[in-house]
C-alpha cells in the first residue's frame, strides 16, 4: 500500500481534509492539474477516445483538457507507407487495408491504363507527348516538395532540361539523351551558383546541386528509356509489354500482401511491404512476361521470365526509393492530382527504373 493511500485513509477516518504532501505518490496536485509524475500520452492516463480516464492511485479522473499538449516529432507526424495496424492485422473500417481509397484508385488506374493502351496501339508517337507531360508534372511535384523542405533545387532548369532529356531521344537516340542530360546538369550547377546574385555566396550549394542532378537522373533520364524503347521495331508493343508487367507486379503484390501479408519486407522504409506481397508480384509478373513476350512480341518465352523477374526487382526498389525520400521529407504523397494514388510521381516510381531494364533486356535479347 502506498504512502498516499495511508494518508487518504487516515484523513477519511478522522474526517479531516488533508492536502497531499509533495512526493507522497499522489498524482494530483493541489490545483487539480496532473503533476509532473504523470506522463501525457501514457495509456493509464488517457485513451484515444478522449474520455476521462482514472489515474491509478487517484479517485478523480484526469480530463484530456487538463493534459498539456506534447509536440509530436517529425517521424511521428508522417509515415508515408506505415499502416494504422501491423502487417496482417484487420483493416481499418474507414479505408482499405493497403491504405488507399480503393474505388478511386481502381477507377483512375483503369482509366489511365485503357487510355495508354489505345494510344500505343493506334497512335504510338502520341505516347511520347503524353509521357513528356507526365515527366514534367512529376519533376515539378518533386521540386516543389524539395523546396518546401528548404532544398533549393533550380526548378526551371530541371523542368525545361528534363523535357530536353526526354524529347531528344526521339531524333538522336541515346546520344541525344546523354547530351541533354550533361548540359542540364551543368546548367543546374551554374544556376544554383548564381541564383542569389554575384555578390552573395550560395547556401548549401553542394547539397542542392547534388539533389537536383539526382532528380534529373531519377525522373527524366530513366523515363527517356521509354522513348528509346518506343523507337525500336515493334516499339509500341515493347512499351505495352513493360507497362503490363509493371501493372502485374503491382496487382500481384497488392493482392498477395492484403490476403497473406504477415512478414514485413523492409519495415524501416516501407512497413506495408511484405515478403508475401513480393512473392505475389513475382508470380503475376512472370506469368505476365510469359504471355506478353510470347503473344505480343512473338519471342522466346524465357525472355518473358527474365523480364518478369527483372521488373519485379527494380519496380520494388523504385517504390522503396520513393518511400524513403517521402519519409525524409515528412510527406505522405508527392502530389494530389490522382485520387487514390497521390501525384503523378507516386505512379511513376516503379515504372521509371522498369523502363530502363525493359529497354536493356529487350534490346539485348530480341
Keywords:
two-stranded antiparallel sheet, mainly alpha, single chain, globular, 60% helix, disordered N terminus, 2 domains
Q: How does the overall form come out from the CA principal axes?
A: globular
Helix content: 55-70%
Low-confidence stretches are 1-77, 82-95
Cα radius of gyration in angstroms:
28 Å
The total count of strands amounts to 4
- Look at the structure and give the mean pLDDT: 80
What is the helix tally?
12
> What is the total domain count?
2
How can the largest sheet be summarized? 2 strands, antiparallel
State the distance separating the first and last CA atoms: 81 Å
Order of helices and strands: HEEHHHHHHHEEHHHH
Strand content: under 5%
**Biggest sheet, spatial arrangement of strands:** 1-2
Structural class: mainly alpha
